[in-house]
Amino acid sequence: GATLGVLGGGQLGRMFAHAAQAMGYFTAVLDQDATSPAGLVSHHHVRTGYEDAQGLAELAQLCAAVTTEFENVPAGSLNKLAERLPVSPAGSAVAIAQDRAAEKAHFVKCGVPCAPYAVIETAEQLAAVNDALLPGILKTARMGYDGKGQIRVKTRDELVAGWNELGQVACVLEKMLPLAHECSVIVARGRDGTIVHLPVQRNLHRDGILAVTEVYEGNLPAAQAEQAVAAAKSVAIGLDYVGVLCVEFFVLENGQLVVNEIAPRPHNSGHYSQNALDMSQFELQVRCMTNLPLVQPRQHSATVMLNLLGDLWFKDGDTAQAPAWDQILALPGAHLHLYGKVDAKRARKMGHLNITAATAEQARATALKAAEILGIAAF
Ligand code: ATP
Ligand code: MG
Ligand code: MG
To answer: Which positions in this protein are listed as binding ATP (predicted)?
Structure first.
């Protein structure tokens, strides 16, 4: 079999490797960490940084095609690999997703509404910010994830202090919007322009981190769901995107749909696809990169996904101890996914639990039961 490569060794790379291997491929991971979740389950593990010319050359030598699981991989490295083998998504698309200012400009270009914002790269731009953007969230333009690199600011003084605290790096200030809820859409687009999508995910974030995803008939009003799918597709088409892309949205209290951000890879909110759809987001990633047919996934079960954060490992004190899974696995429709991370830390994503059932009511009831057992707040 051919070998497929992935830049980044986290859990997304691990689940990509599992999907690729199930389809007969060998996998190669480029990640510096000797115990990276994806490196541990792959046939080849190139242990260099993302910009290491020798590491990239070695990966290119091993692989028939390459993808990424980490959105902050230098776009230049993807471009370099693309001189030698098919790379999806392209460096040009990833570069836009890596920079909140470029990302928002792309949304504007696609005619998809996003939160009112201002780019702040200089003290002059900071001083010129319109008061209408306050209260707001100041976000570093680059490298933020799981709510990191973000400061909520109510006043101009807090804005100035926040920008100083973030090191006066390039930022965007977004107006704080009144959210009714959040949702996301995952699309997969092939080289020939074929595009398929997963059912719309309804997401609950806690402390800036995804906590719960619910996917079943009626999780969102049908018109909102359709609008989100259409917007996600136009964002992907506008990027001439090849691969799996997640588009995150806010639904405002007045029902308006506003795009938040994109992730140029499979996404945490799409993990339910492993057990509730007949094709996972990771298989779609494999199909995109190998030019295999893209077919529309079909949902066969209602589902709720619970993220398993490292906090659950510290319920009984400061020594990490995995929750007792037997009570969870005794629940009907419980699918436990653990990432094989060697050390648990609070707020670190350690795994997820997909609950599937015949109906939304059953899926929710079982998921609430699991949450209670684990000590996760009800939703
Ligand atoms: P991810 O891990 O999804 O990449 P991130 O660090 O890029 O997260 P965002 O998606 O920008 O963070 O924001 C995290 C969460 O903070 C959002 O899901 C939402 O709950 C809240 N949030 C962000 N921006 C706004 C806004 N303008 N108005 C209201 N809430 C917001
Ligand atoms: Mg993000
Ligand atoms: Mg986000």
So the answer is: 100, 139, 144-150, 174-177, 182, 205, 260-261
pLDDT tens digit sequence for 192-228: 999 999 999 999 999 989 999 999 999 999 999 999 9
For the chain, strand residue ranges (E) read 3-7, 26-30, 44-46, 65-68, 117-120, 136-140, 150-153, 171-175, 179-189, 195-197, 201-206, 209-215, 243-252, 257-263, 302-309, 334-338, 349-357
Tokens of 51: 């910009």
Residue 210 φ then ψ, to 5°:
-60, 130
In CATH terms, the superfamily for domain 116-175 is ATP-grasp fold, A domain (3.30.1490.20)
Asked if residue 224 has its Cβ within 6 Å of ligand 1, the reply is no
pLDDT, tens digit, 9 for 90 and up, residues 281-321: 999 999 999 999 999 999 999 999 999 999 999 998 899 99
What SS3 class is residue 288? helix
Q: Which of 11, 100, 150, 185 has most ligand 1 atoms within 8 Å of its beta carbon, as the pocket-test mutant? A: 150
Our mutation pick for probing the ligand 1 site, out of 154, 177, 182, 205, counting the most ligand atoms within 8 A of Cβ, is 205
The complex's ipTM? 0.97
pTM of the model: 0.96
- CA 117, CA 137: separation in Å to the nearest integer? 9
The alpha carbon torsion through 296, 8, 59, 74 (nearest 10 deg) reads: 100
Which protein residue has the closest C-alpha to ligand 1 atom 19? 208
